[in-house]
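Our preliminary data section would be incomplete without showing what the modeling component actually yields. Below, a chain of 316 amino acids is followed by its predicted structure, encoded as tokens that our downstream tools consume directly.
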Amino acid sequence: MIPVQLVTGFLGAGKTTYMNRLLAATDEKICLIVNELGAVNIDEQLIVKMDQEQIELSNGCICCSIQNDLSKTFYQLVAKKETFDRIIIETTGVADPAPIIQTIYYDEYLRQHFKMNAILTVVDASQMNRDLFKEGIHQIAYADMILLNKTDLVSSEELKHARARITQINPTVRVVETVQTEGKFDLLENTFQLSRVDEEQLSRLTEATESVSSLRAVTLNADLPLSRERVTRYVREVLMHYEDSIYRMKAIVRLKDENRKFVIQATNQLMGATFANEVHEGNRSVFVWIGKELDADALARGLKACEVEQDETHSR
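Predicted structure:
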């Protein structure tokens, strides 16, 4: 399957600057999908061929516009049988990531060919002291990694405030400070990989809720080992109950009779789980739910029901 990365961000935050740097620096063959080709200012030295629907670059990358809708564009890519190392979708500044994620997730045919593996949001540090528009909040909530850009244009106090607001919206996201989208990160980083969940960051969070508008980040702990069957059912039932209102969830789980860490991630209703190589120290599990109008008490009760009591463990 071809990995798909989503690059989103506020208007003027620096998405195009990031994409130009990526296209100039990569050795991979990339298909960049944008709403309008005219909005992408690509270095003329890279361009081999250009028409109304497509730009071919000297490094093998191709840029194409979204024709009619995104799913049709994906179907056309499959029909052409072209091979790419990855596909990157650059959204408009006011785009909500949810419909793009759903385009792949809800289409069984497309799921056979593509997989969502990174959501990167570019944020203008100088704009974080203003009221965020709804889509801007969603872009932060869905992100695996945020490029906090234009940090040279703000004071240290403003930068601290910007990071605090991002963390309030999405406590699990990785934030990289950049100037003109240059910073300490890999341009093609697979940020959606389950192994990238920051356990130390999750472990610092205590049982609490924060709210931004109707958005909440609910952090829950379980102190007893959990049943894999119960916890998998719990996560799936929560995703089904809230439907599009769950933006992200991440969890590091201590399972019954298993020493390895069990890592769960979900975006919208797309869920993945895997065992990490590291041994899980102690019995504590940490869950972080990010979504709209979440019932923290109900989420806590559901998690509690996944615990395996000591006498239950010995009786099996």
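The radius of gyration is 21 Å. Residues 123 and 148 are 5 Å apart (CA to CA). Preliminary results of this kind motivate Aim 1 of the renewal.
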